[in-house]
């Protein structure tokens, strides 16, 4: 297998992803200045790591919306063959008319910038560091060898759940309690979306990879590439599964507390 650089459309996307991340982070600080004083004080009172994560919310939300809009057409109407790859910058489908390879690059640009600008891996969270770096490596490998675009685009579309996660965090930062109705509604919506796009499809994704796609990828890029992508898929399954388990335990705890309070009354 001879190394080939990613297509130009991927590199353009990565460059735009880096620029938009930096602009969004700057805009987050600018927007905070026009927020109510009470909200500014709450943000100012956050600990260092929490303060850093707060200003990561806007770049994360902007990126999520862009990925949803940019990939939905290819995800729902594109060819699902693992060897399908459209490396064009401009395409005749989708709202933006920018191709899926461009959004793959944008995804990597966002992940690498988010990792590079973190004060430390500990502040960012080691699971997120593993997620960002492994995904960046896998996406770049796929773009360079022009494979697995349908699955990559689907995983990018998974950012659908990120928007509600960030809305929930803003509400908590504003002073709402996790037991307040608006937070409960947003939390349940986030949990439903996370389950629908990130967790429930995993058994089908893994089954298809083992039964069909691994052999196709092995024949196309060799054993090394197939094992590398298998490792990424395993990491993704473990991360999504662990986050899902944490959310389920929190939901059980939340409803258990409510039941306890009702009994006490």
How would you summarize the topology of this molecule?
Layout: H1 8-32, H2 37-44, H3 48-54, H4 57-77, H5 100-116, H6 121-124, H7 126-145, H8 149-157, H9 160-173, H10 181-199, H11 202-221, H12 223-264
Helix pairs in contact: 1-4, 1-5, 4-5, 4-8, 4-9, 5-7, 5-8, 7-12, 9-10, 10-12, 11-12
Helix vs. strand class: mainly alpha
The residue ranges in which pLDDT falls below 50 over 5 or more consecutive positions are none
Largest sheet: number of strands, sense, barrel closure: none
C-alpha end-to-end distance: 69 Å
User: What sort of overall outline do the alpha carbons produce when their principal axes are compared?
Assistant: globular
Could you characterize what this model shows?
This protein is an all-alpha fold. It has twelve helices and no strands. The chain has helices spanning 8-32, 37-44, 48-54, 57-77, 100-116, 121-124, 126-145, 149-157, 160-173, 181-199, 202-221, 223-264. α1 crosses α5. The longest helix has 42 residues, at 223-264.
